[in-house]
Design goal:
single chain; alpha+beta; Rossmann fold; GMP Synthetase, Chain A, domain 3; 2 domains; 4-stranded antiparallel β-sheet; 4-stranded mixed β-sheet; 9 helices; 17 strands; about 20% helix
């Protein structure tokens, strides 16, 4: 079955109702969706029969151990196997995934073993092979049947993108680490790392450490310029319902990140995110370019007379963790009567923008629409890079457009 829509409408039990109704045996979704559903509570899951499930698939980004455990324990009743698969459109098939090998113990958060016929390797920045335990660029050292052959109309670009940086290898663009058992753990995109005082931190490992703290539903981190360390860590933190951002929680997050990664992983600013959650594309990927804009000072100031944020769903940005980091900022905007509120309201400038059809004047770039807080928060107006409608897929604007289109051209 293919499900298109949002898994929280009309409530957070939508997926599990489908599983019960049709006897679904395997489910394949992204960790972002799982964290969102986990935040809604277990009751929406346990209200439906899930005994038909045999395989719980995860794809699209590294899954943090806490989401993995919830997926296995609550959704799968500890019966269904969690398959955390790693692959790309370019690879044409799974590259790394837990295989049905006798005696293999699943590790929450690890993709584990190369698939049949796949020969992975880890390389350092100089192109040297990393043997044994260690981290590096994940590459493939031998051809495989479903490998990409070319890029239509631009073969040279394909070679330059995937085969030039490390000659003789296919470069995935992702980082990974190998543990003592030889199992692989994906750490995120190598071009999406934080360079703090010369130390490279993967965004995925920092986010996983934050979500490992009790009361945290989801997190996203981006780098912001820092005059001393080069870059500083700016964290957007989504709280579980009923949890209120506080100095104690900031300290707990800072301690959790320090214990799992090290003292270099110091969070300069923590930004509590409201009930609407993080801005995402229709495929569930976090819009990091938008978060970078907000973290870098592109966020709007609070509107005059804005009401205070509700407990557990507020929009106040706190000071930095990690032993009392830099002072945080606060940003609130009035909640929408139907859609909640994104905590920071950012509007693109005319110089960054594009022009609406018919030369209607400047329009903010993809990632934010013009109305901003006026319609109840930026999350309601996030523009998917692939969405021609100009508003988040499924919102009223898109629906109205397609209804008009259908009746206009297919009466």
């Amino acid at each position: 079955m293919i499900f298109e829509g949002i898994p929280t409408y009309p409530d957070a039990g939508r997926l599990w109702a489908i599983v019960a109704k049709y006897g679904v045996t395997a489910i394949y979704t992204a960790p972002t969706a799982l964290r969102s559903l986990k935040r809604s509570g277990d009751a929406f899951v346990t209200a439906h029969d899930r005994s038909s499930l045999k395989i719980l698939g995860s794809v699209g980004e590294p899954i943090n151990p806490e989401a993995w455990d919830w997926y296995h324990t609550v959704v799968g009743n500890r019966r269904a196997a969690v398959v955390d698969s790693y692959w790309q459109t370019e690879t044409g098939a799974h590259v790394v995934a837990p295989l049905p090998v006798a005696g293999l113990d699943l590790k929450p958060g690890a993709a584990q073993l190369p698939h049949l016929g796949i020969v992975p390797a880890l390389l350092d920045d100089g192109g040297n092979v990393v043997e044994g335990e260690g981290s590096g660029h994940l590459v493939l050292a031998a051809p495989w049947p479903s490998a990409l052959r070319t890029l239509m109309g631009d073969h040279a670009r394909m070679e330059a993108t995937y085969f030039t940086r490390f000659p003789g290898y296919y470069m995935t663009g992702d980082g990974a680490r190998r543990d003592a058992d030889g199992h692989l753990w994906l750490t995120g995109r190598t071009d999406d790392v934080l360079n703090v005082s010369g130390h490279l931190l993967g965004t995925a490992e920092v986010e996983s450490a934050i979500v490992g703290v009790a009361g945290i539903a989801e997190a996203a981190v981006v780098g912001v310029p820092h005059e001393v360390t080069g870059q500083a860590v700016y964290a957007f933190v989504v709280l579980m319902p009923g949890v209120v951002g506080s100095d104690a929680l900031r300290a707990a997050i800072a301690a959790g990140v320090r214990s799992r990664i090290g003292p270099i992983a110091r969070i300069e600013t923590m930004h509590w995110v409201g009930a609407r959650g993080l801005p995402k594309t229709r495929s569930g990927k976090i819009l990091r370019r938008l978060l970078r804009k907000i973290a870098g000072g592109g966020g709007g100031a609070p509107r005059a007379g804005a009401p205070p944020p509700p407990p557990g769903g507020g929009a106040a940005g706190g000071g930095g963790g990690g032993g009392g980091g830099g002072g945080g900022t606060s940003a609130t905007c009035p909640p929408s009567p139907t859609r909640g509120c994104w905590p920071t309201c950012w509007r693109g400038t005319a110089s960054e923008g594009r022009t609406q059809g018919g030369g209607a004047g400047p329009h903010p770039p993809r990632g934010c629409c013009a109305s901003g807080c006026a319609v109840g928060g930026i999350s309601e107006r996030v523009c998917d890079a692939e969405d021609a409608c100009g508003v988040v897929r499924g919102a009223r604007g898109c629906l109205s457009f397609w209804v008009w289109f259908s009746f206009r051209f297919f009466p």
